[in-house]
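About this split. The held-out portion is used to measure sequence recovery: a designer receives only the structure tokens and must propose an amino acid at every position. Recovery is the fraction of positions where the proposal matches the reference. Here is one held-out target exactly as it appears in the evaluation file.
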């Protein structure tokens, strides 16, 4: 797994609700830029959902 994936995973693990939208945007951008693959994107999104709960609504 790449450095970008690890950095984003670390951010998610420390994130609170106010940071969620920014991190999700960073995950999507990293995927679009080819820095993470589809599986890594899915894992990060799933981690964000489980860590931050259902209060994120339409962000996912």
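Reference sequence for scoring:
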């Amino acid at each position: 797994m790449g450095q970008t994936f690890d950095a984003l995973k670390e951010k998610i693990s420390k994130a609170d609700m106010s940071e969620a939208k920014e991190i999700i945007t960073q995950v999507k951008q990293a995927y679009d830029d080819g820095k993470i693959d589809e599986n890594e994107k899915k894992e990060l999104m799933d981690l964000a959902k489980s860590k931050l709960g259902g209060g994120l609504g339409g962000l996912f």
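Annotator remark: The chain has one domain: 3-50.
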